[in-house]
Design brief:
alpha+beta; six-stranded antiparallel barrel; 15% helix; globular
Amino acid sequence: LRSAVWIRRRVSIKSTLLEHGLPLEEAPFFAGELLEVTPAGPDYPASYILSVGKAAGLPVGQELKVTRGTTYIGTLKVVRIYDDQENLCGAESKDLVVGQIPQKGDKVNNEVGIKNE
C-alpha cells in the first residue's frame, strides 16, 4: 500500500510538470570565466565575453550568475553564441548588484551557491 501511494504521487508530480511545460530532466550546469569586458557607451550597453559556449550546449538567453570570490556581483544574459569558437559567448548585464561591476577574471555559472574552481 505504501509503495502504491508513492507511485501515484510520483506520477502526479510528473503529470503536473508536463501540464505546465516544465522539464522532467535536471537542467545542465554551465560554468566559465569572464574573459573580456567592454564598458557601456552612450549608445550601447556593457558587453562581456565568457569562456563557455557552443561546446557546453549553452543557449542564447541563458542567465549566468557572476561571482568574485564569495561575492555575488549579479546576472548576465547570453546574447550571442560564437559558431566559430567552441568555448566563447557574448553576454550583456541583466541584473547587477548596486555598486558591483563585472570584471575580467570573475566566475560565471547558472547555479547560485556553486563555487567555480
